[in-house]
Amino acid sequence: MRSGAVWLASATPETVHEFLSGLSDGAFLALPWLFEFWALPHQIAPDGAWRTWVVMGGRGAGKTRAGAEWVRAQVEGAGPADAGRARRVALVGETVDQVREVMVFGESGIMACAPPDRRPVWEAGRKRLLWPNGAVAQVVSAHDPDSLRGPQFDAAWADELAKWPKAQETWDMLQFALRLGPLPQAVVTTTPRNVAVLKAVLKNPSTVVSHAPTEANKANLAASFLHEMEARYGGTRQGMEELEGLLVEDAEGALWSREVIARAQGGKAEGLTEVVVAVDPPASAGAAADECGILVVGACLEGPPQEWRAVVIEDASVQGKGAAEWAAVAVDAFRRHGADRMVAEVNMGGDLVAAVIRQQDAFLPLKMVRASKGKSVRAEPVAALYEQGRVAHLAGLGRLEAQMGQMTRGGYVGRGSPDRVDALVWALTDLMLDRAGRWRRPQVRSL
Prior knowledge:
By secondary structure, the chain is of the alpha/beta class. The chain has helices at 4-10, 13-21, 25-30, 35-38, 63-75, 96-104, 110-113, 167-177, 196-203, 223-233, 237-242, 258-264, 323-336, 351-360, 375-387, 398-404, 419-438; strands at residues 52-57, 88-93, 121-123, 128-130, 136-141, 155-159, 185-190, 207-212, 274-280, 291-300, 309-315, 318-319, 341-345, 366-369, 391-393, 407-408, 411-412.
């Protein structure tokens, strides 16, 4: 779905002139205020009888504008004095100052989005907005959830829910207050964080979700900002949340805690004596198939096993590719890094896995492995290497690290299969664990 603005920007000058000249004077003057024309797809509320709409996106993705325009759509009627669908709106943010400066008076806030004849009046003493048609929006701070015990609303806008100080209590009080009209609704605009209240809202059957990365709104952002943020945070767990707008969860009882993963970051690929490429093939192909995990891992194996160190160099995993395609990606990674061998799991594909890899390179050193234990059992010794501080990560491994945070002793609790983690486990098992089991201290020979 393309917005009218995207269509207009890509149209020929003749088409633009024809479109604009065909508008009446009233339609021409109203065009800047028709958000449906200018909006990006993730900024338009989904159809249906939902209770909560979560707009989850990266920094600068246009979440605030989406919230402000949704409030407009609820309170405004056909004419400036006509009633809209909602009459009593809650504006909830981290603090009163945050609500006022961002949601009300911000560059993408309610006042900036309102047409001159429908612009509300700010009543500072009462901390509320009053529209010409009598609709009222009340400011609420997440520091004071009890302030929601008296009022009642038919609409609400909750901004940056994931960083509210008393998030669960405030959200619960808001639900009790959201009880006017035939279908009271709330929009939540937030950058994702791994917090319980947001995860609970997302899992609620009455919730609908729109998602967008920062890149989706690049036309309204400084190119230097995008470049700098991608250079600093691209491929990291923080970048997945702050730029891609993806919720990165850490499961309870995860084999790799967030602290352990953070300690592994910032490694360097220096002094490596061996490099392997590990492949965990998907069971099927197509857009809905699991990923093919492809990890490049190196190690310095000098001295006794307790002195060995490893570094995860690259995550080249792909999704939705056929066997020949993922095999080509794996062999390309092998060649680029000058790897010593490739390790491939053959539980699902058997001889086919070896065959498709050999089609890319008939003489490539290939070790085929077969899983006889469950994923969690295989992963625990590898997680112990991280606990000992013996594995480091280069940049750009955010998606692998997200999967690691959802691998528990009871199994993987994320969506799909943890193919990136499986490949990591195969690589480190081959490089360090199996090798350590065979290692013997050199004997000093007496003459």
